[in-house]
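Troubleshooting log. The previous structure file for this entry was overwritten by mistake, so regenerating from the original sequence record. Sequence copied from the archived sheet and checked twice against the printout by T.R.
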Amino acid sequence: MINERCDDLYRAADAQDAPGFLATLQDLWERTEDSDPATADAVLVRLCGLFDRLPPGLGARLAVMGGAMVENGADPAPLIDPVVEGLCDALERSAEFARAWRAVTDRRLPEPGPEDQVVLGAARVLSGPFGLPGRLGLGRRLPFARALDLVVGWSIAEDWSAAATTVLQRSAAIRADLSRRPRLAAAVAATEDDRPDLWCLPRLLAVLDDEPLIVLHRPTGRAYAMTIGGIGDNFQLSTLLAHVLNGHVPLTIPHPSWVEAATDGPLEPEAGPIVARFDLRDGTGESIRTAGCPADIPLLDGSVWWSSTVRRSGVRGTSAAPIR
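Regenerated output below.
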C-alpha cells in the first residue's frame, strides 16, 4: 500500500494536481508516521525522485515529509542535495523579497506563511499601485508574476529550513559538508536579520565538531585539553564542562537530568531549569556569552577558554585530559 501511495504521488505530480498531491502526501504520512528505519529509507528514496517534478511550494512540503522519514531512521543522503537546492532558492528569493518590500513601502515585513490571502496581498504590494513609487530604482514596479515568485519564496523558507535542520542534526560529516557550501552560507547570511524564525539554521551550520581547545581553571591553576563536538550554545557547553570536570576541580555537580538535557535526553529536565556552573571567559579574559555559540569564541593559538569562576549555587559532549 505504501508503494501504491508513492505511485499516486508521482501521478499527481505529473498531472500538476496540487490538491491531490497534498492529500496523498498526508495519507502517506499517516501510514508511515511510526515506520521502522527500513520502511522510512525506502519511502525517502521514492520521495526524492519527485523534487524535480514539483514547483517550489509543493517541494517544500515534500521536504518536510522527507525530514520526517530521516527522523524515523532513514539515511539522509538522498535528501541532502534537493533540500540544499530548495533552501538556497527560497532564501535567495526571501532576501530579494525583503529588499523589494522596503523599496516600495514603510510597512513591516509580513509574517511568512502559506495563507493565499497573505501571499497574494504581499505580491500586490510589490506590483500594484500601492506603496512608495520610485524606490525600486527600476522605473517600474515588479511584474506580478515575479512579485508572487518572491513572496512564495518568503513563505516557504521555513519548511525548507525545517528539513535542512533535521538533516544537519544527523551527523558531524553532514554539518561539515553543508557549512562548506558557499551558496548556502551566502543565502543564510542574507536572510539572517530578516528571518529570526530560522535562527536554528545558522546556529547548526556554525556547530563545531572534533574541535580541540584548552580549558584553564584559574582558581586551581589546572588546565585541561579537550575536544568538543555537536554543542549548540555556550550554556550547553558550560553544563557539559561541569559534568566532565567533576572530580577534577571543586564545583557543585550538575544534576544528571541537566546533563541529559544537554546531550540527547529530554529538553525539560526533571530537576527544573539548568543553572550554569561556570563563568566562562575567552583567552583574553573577556566574558563569554552563554547565549552565544562556541564558534563565536575568538581563537588564541587554537582555542583557549578561561573558566574564571566556579558558581556554587544557583550533540555529543566533551572529553578531557589534564595537561601536566
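DSSP finds twelve helices and five strands in the chain. Archived copy saved in two places this time.
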